[in-house]
Amino acid sequence: MFLPSVAERHRRAVLLSVGVTVLTLQAVVQFSPLEAVARAVTAPLAQLTMPLAGWVVDRVSPEQSPPEQAPLSADALIQAERAAGQPAAVPGVAWLEVPVGLSQPEAGRLLLAAGTDFGLAKGMPVVYGGQWLGRIGRTGSATAEVELLSGAARRTPAVLDGDRGELLRAVLEGRGGIEQPIVRWLEAKGEPVAASETYYRRGATDPPAYAALDLTLGSLVRVGDPDRGSAAWEVEFLLPAGGEGRVFVAAGAVSDTVIAEPPIQTAAASLALRADGVFGSRLCGLRAASELSASIAMVDGRVLGRVVARRGELLWCSRRAPADWPSSSWVGLDDDAATREDAALRFTRGDQGVPRGLFLGSRMDPAPSPVGELRLLGRVPLSEPDA
Amino acid sequence: MKLVRWRVLLPVAFLVTLSAPALRALSIGPYLPDPWLLLVVGCVPARASDRLRYSTQVVFVLGWLRASVSAVSPWSCWAGLAGALFLRERVHRHISEESILLRFFVGALAASPPTALDWLESSRLGLERAWTEPLFAVVWVGAFWAIVRRPGPRRLRLDR
After folding, report:
1. Domains, chain A, ranges and CATH?
2. Torsion sign, CA atoms B134, B136, B142, B147
3. ipTM given for this complex
């Protein structure tokens, strides 16, 4: 038997060490160009193996047909948000309904999926139901930023209930982050009443019609220690669950269109492989009918799962039961109102390219089966407003 | 140890690749061994660096097949299989193969790189896995190596 020399053995050992280290580094870091090359190399083989493996899967473990479910309107959450968020009619004020593209309450802002093309402009009031949220800040042609009243150094005129029955004028100042806005420049006619509501007050530059807006800002809370002179009044401002989906913007005059539809890409898909060779039925392979940047897959009007990997026209989708979705990625529907609390019906919250309001299922439902009419959806990425 | 010929290994690897998703889809699927890892460990000699070209080809082909039916990155497949052979060779030459426990230890250690990389990949893909799944993966390969590497009669041992 041929045995290599000691020097040759050492040379090979060094070669192996370097090779394995480089491979491991690439596997951990996933340097994109190399990853793309490897996926391109694998795609032709996958075209051959996946259909055959799919045929074997169907023979070995045929999919159980899913239980019949009562049909649910595809836009049940959107209808509920629309009904709860529509502000009261005010003479001289028209309301534009705008979907939220990105919700960042900790950063004191929302990014809207409509901009100057839809008639949005800096300074317009933004509300949800009877609650004041903030004003339009920077705008772009297709996006606009809402400056929430809780954002750092944002000032909002307000009126408070006084302890002698009178109304006290004040200004709320946002502090950013998770801090609640604080009451500043309080009129010295009396003391505010704890736990009472605070209301929007028309600012000096607002149109006269806005004086009729009856909007709350949040309830009043006493914080700090009066004996130490550190007492202050805070307003508990909470972005409503439905306000993460759509908001209403006050405008003086509007065109025929008062609802901005969020741009969503969609394409048909077919099942390529029902289970992954390594992770099993937690993943399934889909084949997209056309090129699009899909982030979620649907089956018969219900969410099948997130798209987690892509290889050419093949996509891998993770299957999850509604109860297994993290609480940050779903919103509940309870008594026809959107809620962050536990609810029987769950919908997508709208993040990481996933459109809002897609039906996940009932809380107790099992993971969906990839058998039925498959569709891929992706939200068009929003650009930051520039002015 | 004789090398497994390509005309045997390729059809077996291809059949394994086609049947792996079906086996994984079973209720006990997550606890089954990784078939490509068993093939690599079984058909490449313990001293892989003595057959460097053959070992490299086996790792590439089996990793390629594995990645073709999985969302796992091809680099992760290659790195896992190569890491398994590398670690096995490093440890094997210092440990006696007379004891079944030591052989089990060598096999289990060899399974740790691909198992760790699969764990990393699953967290990247946002999948939740029970901690017992990687444990089973390691135990399977350890048991496999403890059985297939059982030393024969001393007079027949040529590769020592």
Report:
1. 83-260 (2.40.10.340), 263-379 (no CATH)
2. negative
3. 0.88
